[in-house]
């Protein structure tokens, strides 16, 4: 998936734009003011009402109320590049002066040269080398500091804003609404667990222990008499597709009742949430708003993409399974807090 | 570790003793009434006071207050066999009628024959086969039901009581006290995560998502149109020794301030809790009460054991690191709720 994104945009300027404070859901009778009235909004309201009503057949005790959210394309912008891919590229450029050998070593040379044609032919091994040097070889503490330092300097190429500003206000409202009704909200991402944990509390109000993601191996070592966890360039857990159901069971040990996704990698999470003994609500965000955000599918005849693919097969499964498809164009009154628009 | 325990006791009667309700800490000015006044009790009280006092240099905000507890030998009895080893043996005996081939197949034959000499020579591979047939090959839901069914029928050979009755009342009080002071309490066990999660809420007041343990691989499958997670006989994560620090970081992403253990496998967890920027409190339970419970070490000249070894090296590390050693004999006024005593 990094492949297509890197082809699209090779090098990014990283202007220092401070991360703005995210707007809180306003105090109003409507808990979801950024949603237009419609089937998606009503499905959420009805499901939560039934879940918390002790006289309802579908009542769920508070300790079991779990809602899971995919991140890329579900709670924040993931086009033309995943936020974490932006990080990997920026980091590679930042590290390059201390690695003069990269000028003559693939795959780094092609990246540093901005050689789109070569990048387009990168193998899995090439990509793994890029992730290895940017995400491993340091302690967990140092990695978190590197990410925290990068976030306010980050810039999405379409919006020219830091990645942490490009969260969907309707989803922030849903998180608030669910928590107000006793749900615990989790991020369940194919992205890096340790990457997302750096900003999850600030951006989503979700603490690190409620972020489940992909992870690499860490090694316990003593450094100057202090224990550290060193990040190894080996995949430990791939929290995508079936890994999302497996990860939810591994980390929580309970099934969610509500799950939000947007792409083929979220299918199993939604099946897991909606396929148990209790009723479950599965929702998929469809990026069909080319004007305010982006339009891609290829479900519903939208342009094809390899970044956050919403295939026609997933749409078919959604229809068969009674999942709710959220149209960004029709269901969302507001997309970003603060009236953020695409850069021209 | 299963080796030594199986040699000690081969087959156990499993009388139907109902699991009694655990006593709650009585409402009193003393939050730790089962503890004798002394250094260990005072260390806990002082540390918690400093942690929650906003004017203290050692103040920790509530969202960061984490306490971790090893289970076997720290919160419940682990001699002469780990609770989960009792389960594996009982389960093997229960499954045997449907596996007539086991009568002639090692390692099952030796177990079913009660052949202690042969069992004593079991290889790692033999032990793995026993775990494979008793802990894998079923769905996660079915495994939880099997464990839940077994628990009230379980019987520790020394106390002739179900394993869930043999929890240390002083530790239950500490858990209550910590939670009352804003800490989240976690079990961090070398035992099976999915095993402990079955009873953790009932026994410790700790929900499944706060149980970190060893785990096997699970596979996502569809069965009759419903998703299931099938348990595979392959180790996924070994939550012991360095794995305890790694597991804490993986599952919580925050360092504990307080960690309780009792054996060599807990060293890294205590280092992780006490080796960060903030002050940390590490505590180790020493089983030195042969009369009321059991006495083993070999630290402090107590009898050697391969089940929950507290080595002299660990004692040396504890002393160098300023960790608190809890003497069951001297520090604990009460060991079990309900006056449970050894069977004669």
Plain-language structure description:
The structure is a homodimer of 344-residue chains. The first copy, chain A, is α/β, with parallel strands linked by helices and 344 residues long. Chain A is 35% helix and 15% strand. Chain A is built from 14 helices and 7 strands. In chain A, strands 4-3-2-1-5-6-7 form a 7-stranded mixed sheet, with helices on both faces. In chain A, helix 3 (83-95) packs across helix 6. Residues 1-26 of chain A have low confidence and may be disordered.
Q: How much helical structure, as a percent, in the residues of chain A? A: 25-40%
Q: Please summarize the sheet with the most strands of chain A.
A: 7 strands, mixed
Structural class of chain A: alpha/beta
Strand content of chain A: 15-25%
Quaternary assembly:
homodimer
Query: How far apart are the termini of chain A?
Result: 26 Å
Largest interface: A-B, 33 and 33 residues
Poorly predicted sequence stretches spanning 5 or more consecutive residues of chain A? 1-26
Continuous helix count of chain A: 14
Rg value of chain A = 20 Å
- How many DSSP-defined strands of chain A? 7
**Order of strands in the sheet with most strands of chain A:** 4-3-2-1-5-6-7
What is the arithmetic mean of pLDDT of chain A? 90
> Shape of chain A from CA axes?
globular
What is the H/E order of chain A? Answer: HHEHHHHHHEHHEEHEHEHEH
């Amino acid at each position: 998936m990094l492949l297509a994104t890197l082809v699209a945009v090779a090098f990014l300027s990283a202007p220092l734009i401070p991360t703005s404070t995210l707007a809180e859901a306003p105090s109003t009778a409507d808990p979801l003011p950024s949603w237009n009235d419609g089937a998606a909004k009503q499905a959420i309201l009805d499901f939560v009402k039934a879940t918390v009503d002790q006289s309802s057949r579908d009542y769920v005790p508070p300790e079991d109320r779990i809602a899971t959210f995919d991140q890329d394309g579900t709670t924040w912008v993931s086009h033309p590049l995943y936020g974490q891919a932006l990080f990997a590229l920026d980091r590679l450029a930042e590290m390059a002066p201390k690695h003069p050998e990269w000028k003559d070593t693939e795959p780094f040379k092609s990246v540093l040269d901005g050689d789109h044609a070569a990048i387009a032919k990168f193998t899995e091994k090439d990509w793994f080398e890029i992730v290895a040097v940017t995400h491993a070889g340091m302690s967990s503490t140092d990695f978190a500091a590197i990410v925290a330092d990068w976030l306010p300097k980050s810039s999405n190429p379409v919006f020219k804003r830091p990645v942490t500003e490009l969260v969907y206000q309707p989803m922030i409202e849903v998180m608030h609404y669910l928590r107000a009704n006793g749900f615990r909200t989790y991020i369940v991402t194919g992205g890096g667990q340790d990457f997302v944990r750096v900003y999850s509390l600030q951006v989503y109000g979700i603490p690190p222990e409620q972020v489940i993601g992909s992870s690499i191996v860490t090694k316990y070592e003593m450094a100057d008499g202090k224990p550290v966890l060193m990040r190894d360039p080996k995949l430990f857990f791939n929290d995508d597709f079936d890994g999302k159901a497996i990860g939810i069971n591994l980390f929580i040990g309970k099934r969610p009742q509500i799950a939000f996704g947007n792409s083929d990698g979220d299918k199993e999470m939604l099946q897991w949430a909606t396929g148990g003994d209790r009723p479950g609500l599965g929702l998929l965000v469809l990026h069909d708003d080319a004007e305010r955000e982006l339009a891609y599918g290829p479900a519903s005849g939208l342009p094809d993409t390899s970044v956050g693919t919403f295939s026609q097969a997933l749409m078919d499964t959604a229809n068969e399974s009674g999942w709710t498809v959220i149209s960004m164009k029709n269901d969302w009154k507001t997309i970003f807090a603060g009236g953020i628009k695409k850069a021209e």
